[in-house]
Amino acid sequence: MKIKTLGALKKSGYQPKSIKEELRSNLIEQLKKKTNVFDGIIGYENTVIPDIERAILSKHNIILLGLRGQAKTRIARQMTKLLDEYMPIVADSEMNDDPLEPISRFARDLIAEKGDKTPIEWVHRDDRFAEKLATPDVSVADLIGDVDPIKAANMRLNYSDERVIHLGIIPRSHRSIFVINELPDLQPRIQVSLFNILQEGDIQIRGFKVRMPLDIQFVFTANPEDYTNRGSIVTPLKDRIESQILTHYAKDVETSMLITEQEARMSPELEKTIGMNFLAKKMVDQLAFEARKSEFVDENSGVSARLTISAMENLISAAERRMLLAGDSKTHVRVGDFWGVIPAITGKIELVYEGEQEGPFIVAQNLIGQTIKSLFEDYFPNPELIKKQKKGKNPYQFLLDWFGQGKQFDIMVDYTNNQYEKLLMSIPGLHDLVKELHPKADKNMRLFLMEFLLHGLSEHSLLSKGLIQSGFQFKDLFNSMLNFGGATDEGAGEQWGFE
Fold this sequence. Notes:
Blueprint: H1 6-11, H2 19-33, H3 48-57, E1 62-65, H4 72-78, E2 86-90, H5 105-114, E3 120-124, E4 129-133, H6 140-143, E5 145-147, H7 149-155, E6 165-167, E7 176-181, H8 188-192, H9 195-199, E8 216-222, H10 224-230, H11 235-240, E9 243-246, H12 253-263, H13 268-273, E10 274-275, H14 278-292, H15 305-326, E11 331-332, H16 342-346, H17 353-358, H18 360-376, H19 383-388, H20 397-404, E12 408-412, H21 417-425, H22 430-437, H23 443-459, E13 463-468, E14 471-476, H24 477-482, H25 492-495
Helix pairs in contact: 12-14, 12-15, 14-15, 14-18, 18-23, 22-23
């Protein structure tokens, strides 16, 4: 910036304005242009974002209330886009002092000494954001400030001199956006220290009569579970936060898929070598929806969008590892690869008591099975409806008859592409059924659907499926019930690298 002194700044016609007015005026310009300020925030177009825009237009402090993984912090960080690109401050000011409205002792003394020759610096909007995670050990000194005896000794100041004060992160965020994440985890006595800042904009430190009209846009985040169980927001503080905005998970699988596709990391090289069809992508996000309604998962804790992101990355890595071990140059994601996403599931869900009794591996395995079952009738006739029909052909009867002859079908997750195709083609009529129902599907999609059909029939209790070493075994359900040997789920966790 060309303006380097206070005198030049005055001549330029610069007029101070509060950060809330700055956010408001810039938002008005963006709304007139119909520009999306919160780029990359998917699924909130008609809910959360309009609420945030109304809060900014109202010059409100904001609290974002929602379960984990609902983009609360990302939204707060993107609010910097509504700030002016550069802001003038008194040079070397630790409080971002406005040259025409200084509030710190340092800035006032410097201007009194140098007048219009006071040096000016320019701060970019990205540097006008501060963030603090609320933890039980956060103190008033961290947030507001405290007397610094070392500063007093070095500067030979009396303790009655306000220059002995070491300012906390909030005063240093003057003319900036300040975020406190997980507000309920902040001790009640620390929350009380925020009253004056929110209402009057001033601070109190160790009895000092310090009047600092701080200008800050506060954004708080909180989890409803913390709100009611582990911690709480004291009522007077909650009363001072003008707008409480509720966030939420994606309302439908399609929206969730857009979020996962945007966030999951996949290198361009892998995109060329690992193919993934629409059904496989949908299965990843359906997993989260199944987990959110599962009786084994704590619904109050939530199922973060990070589950689907991590699951997608694990799924790609499972296919990549298989491809490397098999020596194939390219491959496509298979249904069997989904058992490679179990670590992403077990690390992202909180289980209720019944879930703990089942064990995280079994719960994750069941969620994958339920995902297959939920999506099955989108691609194949519903077996439940077929059972109820007294007349009409059962399209799966040939498969049930084939397995009823005592046949079993073992499919290993590390098979090469050729082995995988040859094995699926070995079941008489399986390919013909898939081709009849999905004539436009390409070869790789048909193979995926052939495997998907076997898993789906087992989830509808028409076939028996068991985990074996590094694979799956499908058998006739009745024969499997009579024969207690062979593949079972017992010990499957150990076979697959889980305890």
